[in-house]
Amino acid sequence: MATVVLFHSVYGLRPAVHAAAERLRAAGHDVHTPDLFEGRTAGTVEEGGKLKDEIGRDELLMRAVTVTAPLSERGLVYAGFSLGGSIAQNLAFADARARGLLLLHGTSDIAEDAAVDELPVQLHVADPDAFEPHDWLNAWYLRMRRAGADVEIYRYAGAGHLFTDAGLDDYDEAAAEEVWRTALGFLDGLR
Length: 191
What we know:
With 191 residues, the chain is of the alpha/beta class.
């Protein structure tokens, strides 16, 4: 069993995040879904962007650290959707006990001096994805490898950015099911 902290996207803690957490729990994992927007959700990317900007990146990271710090001694798997993936990546790189990093639809920049010890990383992303363009992902992959991460990237042709969220127009059922099969295999391999 892995202990997973699953961070929501810029839309906030929506039913799709709870559904994903339940899917992971049904497979035997302990899953935590922190609400970094403190009960607020967005109906559009633009609304979510305003919420994110209003709270601020530093405050979002502080909220995430506050939730994960008491759990980190267990050796967490950090996971997240889009914005949540960015937050998860930052936390995983700062946690020497991190067991894995599962990124759904989003990444973050990597400091030049970043280093991890063969951290298992799995990224699932639409192809193409306006938020994660090919040039960015190629550079991101190289920086992750240089930092010491063991990275797998899965691209889903024709899917929208948040294609695992059944409540959004981006939803692609076949691609989402493939994500969860692959992600569950990844988590099982971390036990």
